[in-house]
Amino acid sequence: MGSAGEAKQRQLAELRRRMAAIPARGADAAARISVAEVDADSGVLRGEPLPVPPALENLLPEGALVKGSVVAYTGAHSLLSGLLASVTASGGHAAVVGLPRLGLLAAAEMGARLDRLAVVTDPGADPLEIASVLLEGLDLVVLGLNGASVPLSRTRVLTARARSKHSTLVVTGGSWSGPALRIDTRVTGYSGLGRGSGRLRTVCLDVSVHGRSAQPRSGRLDLCPRNGRVEWVEPALTPAPPLPTRHAASAS
Fold first, then answer.
1. pTM, full prediction
2. To 10 degrees, the CA torsion angle through 226, 232, 238, 239?
C-alpha cells in the first residue's frame, strides 16, 4: 500500500512540475478571473470563451465553451479531438486523462499542437485528483470517467476548482451531476470507404446541446478533408465530390 501511495505522490509531483513549466499562464489566469461572472438568476458562468471548431459555435449557447465551466460529453471521441485541436492551435494548453483510445493522430490532422497537449493514459485509482492538479495550469482538461458515477461532493469540488483556475473541464464516459453544459453526439454515417484508396473521407455526426438556461439546440457536423487538413464543417459547407469531366463522361 505504501509503495502505491508513493508512486501516486511521485506522479502528482511530476504533474505539478510540468504545470509550473507552462509559461506564465497562472498569473495570466489570476488577472483575468474578474472577466468570468456567474449569472445571479441562472447560475451560469459567463466569461472568456474557449476556442472550439467554428462549425460547433452555432450550437453552443455562448457561441463557445466558457473558461471555468464543466461540460459533460457523450458520444464520438472525434469531436473531442476537434476541441483539443482548437485549443492548442490557438496557443492554449490541454490535457487528456484516462482516454487511452483517443486518437492523437486524428487530433494532429485537425491541427492540434501536440507539444501543448499532455496525455495521462493511466491516471490510477483516482483520476479526479489528477484532473484537479491539471486544472491548475491548463486551459482544457478532458477527463474519462471509465463508467464511474462521481459523487456530488466531488463534482462540487472539481467545479469550484475549474472556476477558480479559469480552466474548462470536459468529462465523458460516466455520470456527472450539474454540469454547465451537456453535449451529446451520435455518428450517423460515413463516406469514402471502398473508393479510391479506401480511406475514410467523411464522418457525419448529430450533435445535441443542453445548457442550464438556454433552449436545447441540435444540428449536424461533418468531419472531412478541407484546406489541406481534416476539419469539422457544417453540412452545407461540406465539399461536394468533383463532377466528371466532359471527356470522362463521353468515355463512359
1. 0.79
2. 10
